[in-house]
TrEMBL record:
Residues 622-868 form the G-protein coupled receptors family 1 profile domain. GO terms for biological process: adenylate cyclase-activating G protein-coupled receptor signaling pathway; hormone-mediated signaling pathway. One of its GO terms (molecular function) is protein-hormone receptor activity. The keyword Glycoprotein applies. This is Leucine rich repeat containing G protein-coupled receptor 5. Keywords: Cell membrane, Disulfide bond, G-protein coupled receptor, Glycoprotein, Golgi apparatus, Leucine-rich repeat, Membrane, Receptor, Repeat, Signal, Transducer, Transmembrane, Transmembrane helix. Receptor for R-spondins that potentiates the canonical Wnt signaling pathway and acts as a stem cell marker of the intestinal epithelium and the hair follicle. Upon binding to R-spondins (RSPO1, RSPO2, RSPO3 or RSPO4), associates with phosphorylated LRP6 and frizzled receptors that are activated by extracellular Wnt receptors, triggering the canonical Wnt signaling pathway to increase expression of target genes. In contrast to classical G-protein coupled receptors, does not activate heterotrimeric G-proteins to transduce the signal. SMART domains: LRR_BAC, LRR_TYP, LRRNT. One of its GO terms (cellular component) is plasma membrane. It is a multi-pass membrane protein.
Length: 955
């Protein structure tokens, strides 16, 4: 059975191309590897639609000359006297004037039959001799092209016209070719049998095919080359035997193929070179033995192939070559030895005096650059994937005609001077260990057009290293260690790659590269200098380069541009404007700037700028006030106030993040491109990015803990139970902080994702790892909000059952509920943004994303303290107590805790009414640290027996 993909490839290639030389060869089991036709046959004519008229038949070129017309007329009148070829004589191929006359004479009896049968077929009728279901087209006046491919045929079709010049039987199920089955097709020039089930081809299968030039037998089940079936195909020029299972080539199988030019034997199971079989192919010009299992090439393996120009031996198991294995290849110009198991460089290559192209990729055992004496005509040398660490100083003396040098994927550290290689046009040294480019390394290479030095360790390039390269148009220095880049002599560059040089943070002026078309920079900000700015109104500055006019002069010039009096001048002005506009946008620079890689302003819009400044001021001031009031008595702080104070600390860290970003925006206002790369890669960006993630995650965890604590506290108060020890709460708080610390450290371990943008945040788009990180955070935080919601829903359900009167601090319950509601609402846009990035939803504009990240995300940092300050009565009490502490002359002699029996507290109630709670011999559990000790001067009674205590919970 044939693989469907191979069938499709063979079918498409069989219809589009004909075989020939090995340019563009690509191997692969069951692949077609179809190459251009040596005879340059015209492509198949397109099918004609219904009702379309066929063009008039053209007179064959063979009958254009008078002597040809006289010969044809004589044979038509007296066919019995037409000369016939002698037995065993060579029958030339039809198609050229000198070799087609005998074939024309042989065809005259058939021409008589055609003349007796009438003229040309009627339009729309099936041509005579066209098999059923096949597609037939005329090929000139008499010949016919027959396409029977991919029809599921199991045998050769009948009713084939004797005038068939092209027969395509590929991609069928033909398993046998009976002897003499094609003997009448004496005009057949191309036969395609690729992709069938042929396992054996008997003698005489191709008998009578005197004009056959192209034979395709690839993608079959042949175990050996047919012993006698191919003999005496004297006109055959191209033979395809690739992608079979051939393991044996009989010595005499190619006898008589004196015209064979191209031979495919790749993608088979050969283990050795069939030396004897090749001795009869003296006219062979191109051959491939790639993708076999050949392990050794003996001496004189190609001794009689004096006309061979192209030889492919790649993807074998060759580990050794005889010292005279290439003797006799006097015309060889291209040798491909890629991906073998060579132990060392084959010295037999030195005998190939006409060799022009040598490719040797994947020779990992070669540690030294080979001695190429004797290959002075070599124009292209590819030696990659080896272990070469240095080049000899005489490399150019051995190869004076070298034009292409590819030594990528080696271990080169230092480069010699290539100034003697005056014909060099392309150099590829990527993926080496080069650390420096000296002034004379590429000196005076006037013809050099492409230079690839990517993926090295180049940290230093001499300022004049490229000064004498006038023809250089492509330069690749990506992924090196450059901190500066010399521009001298690079005015003709059209392609420049500098991406991956993270230390190269300075801007490069576009004036140094007037011909540049494509450029890749390390940072998007550097593309701002190449016309990638966001403000189109900067175009007029391109016209006034070097003009130091004042602002008034510029305004007068702009007005003068508009007030053009003459229509001629206006037209010229518009043409100049269009040219300048094209010049401005002709450079393709990547990565391109945008809302997250701005050229001028970090924040972009004033709405974001005002929002960030407001959040920064409120978050710092309000959280500082909350922290100072909550922690005024650290020994007597309640558990819920401890949580509120720690949350305020985390919110203050988020305020620090917003403050730093606002400061950076202010200092780089209007010129952020000059500082963007420095800011992204600086320590400051990573620190505040770390603080923002740590603070936001800690706030979510602590808020979850506060919700659970309130629910647990209400339950204990209702059942007169003791609360969880204060030390346990502190341990849980530390655990929450540790979890947030781990989460904030992940981006640093994953390649410093905080430096992915000037916002110093892992963006919810871009790399899959970053998107996965953000989605994981959203899922974790959503789980926390779900837990808080469930806890508070259960709490309020219990309150509705009459437990409210047992709560002494319901103001804190309400405060935590308010925080939960506010933070949950503000987190919804963040969650939606992360999931939309995961689902590749692009309807959200970058400006909206930027607003969410800079304003919505840090907004709880200022709302949380504001809610506590404005709506919680405990803040007023704590603030008043703090005020008394700051004024010693008004402070009481003995500092005390807030009495639960004070007049202020008695005036408060949860529902604007006073609640009266009666405890009979009850042990009142205050929300104090379990290990706290009261001051001797002011004793706190934890268990008191009151007959009736007037107690008001809160608002």
């Amino acid at each position: 059975m044939r693989l469907h993909t191979a069938q499709t490839a063979c079918r498409s290639s069989a219809h589009r191309h004909s075989p020939g030389c090995f340019e563009g060869y690509s191997g692969g089991r069951r692949g077609c590897n179809v190459l251009p036709d040596p005879r340059r046959a015209s492509p198949p004519r397109p099918r004609l639609g219904a009702g379309a008229r066929r063009p008039a038949l053209q007179t064959p070129a063979e009958f254009q000359k008078p002597e040809e017309r006289r010969l044809a007329r004589h044979c038509l009148q007296q066919p019995g006297r037409c000369p016939r070829p002698a037995s065993g004589s060579r029958i030339p191929a039809l198609g050229t004037m000198d070799t087609s006359r005998v074939g024309v004479l042989l065809s005259l009896p058939v021409l008589l039959q055609l003349a007796a049968g009438g003229g040309s077929p009627k339009p729309g009728a099936l041509p005579r001799g066209c098999p059923t279901h096949c597609h037939c087209e005329p090929d000139g006046r008499m010949l016919l092209r027959v396409d029977c491919s991919d029809l599921g045929l199991s045998e050769l079709p009948s009713n084939l016209s004797v005038f068939t010049s092209y027969l395509d039987l590929s991609m069928n199920n033909i398993s046998r070719l009976p002897p003499g089955s094609l003997h009448s097709l004496r005009f057949l020039e191309e036969l395609r049998l690729a992709g069938n089930a042929l396992t054996y081809i008997p003698k005489g299968a191709f008998a009578g095919l005197y004009s056959l030039k192209v034979l395709m037998l690839q993608n079959n089940q042949l175990r050996q080359v047919p012993t006698e079936a191919l003999q005496n195909l004297r006109s055959l020029q191209s033979l395809r035997l690739d992608a079979n299972h051939i393991s044996y080539v009989p010595p005499s199988c190619f006898s008589g193929l004196h015209s064979l030019r191209h031979l495919w034997l790749d993608d088979n199971a050969l283990t050795e070179i069939p030396v004897q079989a090749f001795r009869s192919l003296s006219a062979l010009q191109a051959m491939t033995l790639a993708l076999n299992k050949i392990h050794h090439i003996p001496d004189y393996a190609f001794g009689n192939l004096s006309s061979l120009v192209v030889l492919h031996l790649h993807n074998n198991r060759i580990h050794s070559l005889g010292k005279k294995c290439f003797d006799g290849l006097h015309s060889l110009e291209t040798l491909d030895l890629n991906y073998n198991n060579l132990d060392d460089f084959p010295t037999s290559i030195r005998t190939l005096s006409n060799l022009k192209e040598l490719t040797l990729n994947g020779a990992s055992q070669i540690t030294e650059f080979p001695d190429l004496t004797g290959t002075a005509n070599l124009e292209s040398l590819t030696l990659t994937g080896a272990q070469i660490s240095s080049l000899p100083q005489t490399v150019c003396d051995q190869l004076p005609n070298l034009q292409v040098l590819d030594l990528s994927y080696n271990l080169l550290e230092d480069l010699p001077s290539f100034s003697v290689c005056q014909k060099l046009q392309k150099i590829d040294f990527r993926h080496n260990e080069i650390y420096e480019i000296k002034v004379d390394t590429f000196q005076q290479l006037l013809g050099l057009r492409s230079l690839n030095l990517a993926w090295n360790k180049i940290a230093l390039i001499h300022p004049n290293a490229f000064s004498t390269l006038p023809s250089l148009i492509k330069l690749d220095l990506s992924s090196n260690l450059l901190s500066s880049f010399p521009v001298t002599g690079l005015h003709g560059l059209t392609h420049l790659k500098l991406t991956g040089n993270h230390a190269l943070q300075t801007l490069i002026s576009s004036e140094n590269f007037p011909e540049l078309k494509i450029i890749e920079m390390p940072y998007a900000y550097q593309c701002c200098a190449f016309g990638m700015c966001e403000n189109i109104y900067k175009i007029p500055s391109q016209w006034n380069k070097g003009d130091n006019s004042s602002a008034d002069d510029l305004h007068r010039k702009d007005a003068g541009m508009v007030l053009v009096q003459d229509e001629h001048d206006l037209e010229d002005f518009l043409l100049d404007f269009e040219e300048d506009l094209k010049a401005l946008h002709s450079v393709q620079c990547s990565p391109s700037p945008g809302p997250f890689k701005p050229c001028e302003h970090l924040f972009g819009s004033w709405l974001i700028r005002i929002g960030v400044w407001t959040i920064a001021v409120l978050a710092i001031s309000c959280n500082a006030l909350v922290i100072s009031t909550v922690f005024r008595f650290p020994l007597y702080i309640s558990s819920i106030k401890l949580l509120i104070g720690v949350i305020a600390v985390m919110n203050m860290l988020m305020g620090v993040y917003s403050t730093v970003l606002a400061t950076v925006d202010a200092f780089t206002f209007g010129s952020f491109a000059q500082h963007g790369a420095w800011w992204e890669n600086g320590v400051g960006c990573q620190v505040i990015g770390f603080l923002s993630i740590f603070a936001s995650e800690s706030s979510v965890f602590l808020l979850t803990l506060a919700a659970l604590e309130r629910g647990f506290s209400v339950k204990c108060s209702a059942k007169f139970e003791m609360k969880t020890p204060f030390s346990s709460l502190k341990a849980i708080i530390l655990l929450c902080a540790l979890m947030a610390l781990i989460i904030a450290t992940v981006p640093l371990l994953g390649g410093s994702e905080y430096s992915a943008s000037p916002l110093c945040l892992p963006l919810p788009f871009g790399e899959p790892t970053t998107t996965g990180y953000m989605v994981a955070l959203v899922l974790l935080n959503s789980l926390c909000f779900l837990i808080m919601t469930i806890a508070y829903t259960k709490l309020y359900c219990n309150l509705e059952k009459g437990d409210l009167e047992n709560i002494w601090d319901c103001s804190m319950v309400k405060h935590i509920a308010l925080l939960l509601f506010t933070n949950c609402i503000l987190y919804c846009p963040v969650a939606f943004l992360s999931f939309s990035s995961l689902l590749n939803l692009t309807f959200i504009s970058p400006e909206v994303i930027k607003f969410i990240l800079l304003v919505i995300v840090p907004l709880p940092a200022c709302l949380n303290p504001l809610l506590y300050i404005l709506f919680n009565p405990h803040f007023k009490e704590d603030l008043g107590s703090l005020g008394k502490q700051t004024h010693p002359w008004t402070r009481s002699k003995h500092p005390s805790l807030i009495s639960i029996n004070s007049d202020d507290v008695e005036k408060q109630s949860c529902d604007s009414t006073q609640a009266l709670v009666t405890f009979a011999s009850a042990s009142i559990a205050y929300d104090l640290p379990s290990n706290s000790v009261s001051s001797p001067a002011y004793t706190v009674t934890e268990s008191c027996h009151l007959s009736s205590v007037a107690f008001v919970p809160c608002l």
